[in-house]
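fyi for ur records
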Amino acid sequence: MHLLLCPDHAYLWWIETGGLAPLGQFTTFKDNAPELLSRSLRSDQVIYCSPLVDPYQPAEESEQMMPRLLDAFLDQPPRTLAIQTRGPLILRDLEKLATLAQRTRLRVSFSLTTDREDIRRLYEPLCAPLDQRLTAMRHLRAAGIPTYATLAPLLPGNPEALLDMALEATTSDVIGDPFHVRAVKTSGATTREPALLISERNGYSAWHDPEFQAEIVARLRARACAAGRNFAAGIAGFRLLV
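which gave:
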């Protein structure tokens, strides 16, 4: 049994002339999410928190929903729990996570999207800087929590340098995923228009080209193999978590 857990956080962005600007921002929470989760938990479940939204977005600092959800997991551990984030705020819950790692197959998938901070600011202006993400990954690993570097979406930069950063911060295989384009992903959601516009305006449109993406993935796989690690992209990559 698989369950996708979404604490129901969301960001609203708007495109203005000259680039991406945080015109509006909203976050919603289900106050009774921990109670609902407790009623649904089973020992055979594989739970992914969350493929759609980051459970450690900035508003989580004040709302503190995740500690309550983790308490529910501690009371009734599922078979596997994978947490996807790019937020260093996860370290606030390190003690609970370390305990949970002893009771279930816990995986933290930490997004690392580029080796360049200027590119990170361009595409992810409200997300944590790269050095903070790497520090969080090292702390999670040191606490005995299996931590995966997830190079997704693959933003412009030096693929080999990005892979080396991931290898240094973790001991697990590496996951990656290029921008989603319709030529490759024939159904479901694809990369949103804001990212396409940013790439076009800054000369990075090639990163949305399937042939170019395949070349980048091949380079990442070769670099990982040379270091004695596996690199898997797309669905095959995320299956490493479960």
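The chain has a mean pLDDT of 88. thats all i got for now
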